[in-house]
Amino acid sequence: MHFGGRREVSLRGASSREVSRSALLNKVAEERAARSKARKAATSAALIQRVWRGRKAACCARQLIQSEWDTWHAARMAAAGGQAPAPLTADEVSQKLLAPVLFLLWDARKREGGEMQRLQSVMVWLLKSLDSAETATNFCSLAIGTQSQRATWQHQAHQMVSLCSALLSLSTSSSSSSSSSNPEAPSLLLTVLAMRVHVSLCDTTTWRFLRSPAVASTTPPGNALAAAAEAQVLSLLAGTASGATGIYPALRMHLLTNYAAPPVDGWRERKGKGGVGGGVGAGGGGGQAAQQLFLLTAAAVTVALRPIIVFSGKRDGQEVAGKLPSVWASLAADQFAATFSPSLC
Q1: How far apart are CA 202 and CA 191, in angstroms?
Q2: Which residue(s) pair with 315 in the sheet?
Q3: Where are the alpha helices (DSSP H) in the chain?
Q4: In order along the chain (345 residues), what is the average pLDDT of each group of 10 residues?
Q5: Is the bond preceding residue 220 a cis peptide, omega within 30 degrees?
Q6: Within 13 Å, how many C-alpha atoms sit on residue 246's CB side?
Q7: Residue-wise over 186-221: b if at least 16 C-beta within 10 A, else e?
Q8: Do residues 171 and 182 touch, judged by C-beta distance below 8 A?
Q9: Which residues face 320 on adjacent strands?
Q10: DSSP letters of 230-289?
């Protein structure tokens, strides 16, 4: 019997046990960790799916651009009927010739089948355009066009200069103009064409259209257009002097690959026999390949020296790309000296 006060009745049941505070806290922590792991897994899955979809879309776009460019180029060549094809306008060179190929070959070291053949066709077309005396068909006429055309020319010219430098670093004197042990390696002829394009883009004296009567009679006067063209080239040379185009490491790699110094013992032996101590390393020999290699090396050295020569002749009255000409000349000279450092031999 229960006497006095209210009786306490437990409704938990006989099998129920009291949960300790530490066990409850551990259970809550485990549940929180499980929720956090689930969130991270969902985020990671979404990121992987997004990257995969982006890569797949980029691959499809790349294949589409390749197909469209090949179709356009084949149509141009077929329309010529075996004769020299009609010259491209400056806008066609920029939009139809260069833009797709520069997208496909933004990095010459990451290339796929057939791109070296496309690039050689591009170099031939571009050289024809750069050699034109007509403003309408010369690609460099965009450098003195509208503001949009000037920006497009500067961007594409910088990309072409960087691409030409990459081709120089990948070339070897053992590459022939038609075939190679590696069909996706740039041929010696392709690299020679690339260096010719590099020289033409960085030298306004090769722009024949600036001396045409049509440019001289325009408004503003021809000399103002020539000054605008020079300003564009100076900006391009500033990129070269800063090392952004990679011409100096490419020149060093080219020299190390194709003009490796002979061993000291071999040099002494040839000297004792009346031979010349030194020579071409990987691709020594005569004939057309040796001549192309010489032209390639001469063009590469010319391109590397041009920022030094041009900026050394400018006074420090006006900045170019945020720096004085003397600063650009010093930067280019330091990189050129490093190219021919004693460790080269």
Answers
A1: 17
A2: none
A3: 21-80, 90-92, 99-104, 115-130, 147-170, 188-201, 213-216, 222-242, 247-258, 264-272, 288-312, 325-339
A4: 61 63 87 94 95 92 88 86 82 91 67 72 91 90 91 93 88 52 66 91 88 71 79 89 88 82 52 47 58 85 89 78 83 86 59
A5: yes
A6: 19
A7: bbbbbbbbbbbbbbbbbebeebebbebeebeeeeee
A8: no
A9: 323
A10: HHHHHHHHHHHHHTSS-HHHHHHHHHHHHSPPPPHHHHHHHHHTT--S---STT---SHH
Tokens of 138: 């010369």
SS3 323: strand
The residue to which tokens 């057309």 are assigned: 288
Sequence-distant (6+) residues with CB within 8 A of 206 are 130, 199, 200
Place of tokens 């149509």: 75
Tokens of 148: 């949009």
3 state SS of 120 = helix
Q: What per-residue confidence (pLDDT) applies to 276?
A: 42
How many CA atoms are closer than 13 Å to the CA of 316, on its beta-carbon side?
Answer: 7
**Which residue type does 279 have?**
G
C-alpha torsion 297→303→305→308, nearest 10 = -170
Tokens of 263: 């061993």
The amino acid at residue 52 is W
Structure tokens belonging to residue 275: 């031979």
pLDDT in the model for residue 281 = 47
